[in-house]
């Protein structure tokens, strides 16, 4: 069993290189399985710490962020409706003389928050570790993956981005965190044949107080001790336990479609009206499934969390850009604006089984230039267990003129989005209409690459390009307005983005499709209940068929619904 590193202080003081403190096998569990144990174990160890565990599958380069140095969580408020200001709750971990976390709340705009994050990132962009950067001249940008090596991890939801795109249209924002990012200087990465390595970065180097480093040393020593304990438990109790045995401990959840087939038909017909009138060329119409997490009436607490379904969901989808994040919902917990005394579990959970890449940002290690890649998905056919039928579905997608037309519309939209930030002449489309196969569907995927203009920060590109064109339609601004009218309820984080941005400007972000959200609401007794929501949709054009589009929604989420209901094989 690993023992705490006795040279933590010297390693931290030798920054800017990261400190590799220890490594564990954790019973050789998958990242998705490990997350459930980490979440419960660390919260039980210290439920007052600012644990905001986040996992990104990151195209088979998984990273698990543990305890952010600073986190920003953004909430809608009445001020946002009147003046486009959001409530930003900022939590410091507390590495200094006062080791307890500190919390502040302020009201700022979306762009001011973006600028704050850019300024913060520049403080830590020392270019001290270029091992993950990519020499673009000698690498295939289409397959590049910079990997997380120190920066921000989190999500930006659809609602906040859509509202910023059309601030005068009264686009509804879900009453939950609409964005959350954390500076993860302490995180786990998986190393082949080694296991999970804990990395920490010196993040107090701008402080004159030596007590800061001493406090971080104590924090790391305690964390390593906790991870040692968890590793021992997993070896003792879970080494021979199968996924099915683990999954059997969670209760089934049945999510119910909020629209009937008739409701979908009516929304589809209204979408066609807008398309025929020329408001848009394509509109992404989605529908929602809802349910509640199992609940214990005696304790006023849920019996499971969304994270408990993560291992089975990821095992059955194997989504390349999957992720999980939980946030202690400050607004729900304190409710300072409403004065409510609501009690219960107020944690917001986001679980994504996304197959879709939004952006990969790379930094050329020789020139310092940033490049960007995006791979929009538009075009779907179901998979089949029968190989001949599966091949036929794939060929049908290849031959589909409708899907190719939809795909090229989104390619053009994204080329225009990137054109605002890209060096003139650098936007290229190296691949159109490629077919990628996933556990439940075949998708048509295209690839766009560009070089960013000098002095353009990748965070500004990310903020300015949301929401993704593949889940809005074109033109984007009019599409989000129509979506707000037709879908009748906020999307929340769904169709936003989740990922990481290293402080050097490299990073990777998904599109939050095939994504579940769990958050609190309150019953008449002011006790919180945990609601679970899932969406699916597709791009509608004048050539779309209602029955086919409705079935496509079911194809996209059928395996997720089956896993939650425990009806999968």
Structure report:
The protein has 569 residues and is an alpha+beta fold. The chain contains 15 helices and 26 strands. Strands 1, 2, 3, 9, 10, 11, 12, 15, 16, 22, 25 and 26 form a twelve-stranded antiparallel beta sheet that branches. Strands 4, 5, 6, 7, 8, 17, 18, 19, 20, 21, 23 and 24 form a twelve-stranded antiparallel beta sheet that branches. Strand 9 (186-191) and strand 10 form a beta hairpin. The longest helix is centred in the middle third of the chain and has 27 residues, at 211-237. It is globular and about 65 Å long. Mean pLDDT is 85; it is low at 1-17, 205-209 and 335-343.
Q: What's the layout of helices and strands?
A:
Layout: H1 8-13, E1 19-24, H2 31-45, E2 54-56, E3 63-65, E4 70-75, H3 78-83, E5 86-92, E6 102-108, H4 110-124, E7 151-156, H5 158-165, E8 179-184, E9 186-191, E10 195-200, H6 211-237, H7 243-247, E11 256-257, H8 261-277, E12 282-292, E13 295-296, E14 301-302, H9 310-317, E15 323-328, H10 330-334, E16 347-352, E17 357-363, E18 370-374, E19 377-382, H11 387-399, H12 401-419, E20 428-437, E21 441-451, H13 458-465, E22 473-474, H14 476-487, E23 497-502, E24 507-510, E25 515-522, E26 528-540, H15 546-564
Antiparallel strand pairs: 1-10, 2-3, 2-15, 3-9, 4-5, 4-8, 5-6, 7-8, 7-23, 9-10, 11-12, 12-22, 12-26, 13-14, 15-16, 16-25, 17-18, 17-24, 18-21, 19-21, 20-21, 23-24, 25-26
Helix pairs in contact: 2-9, 9-15
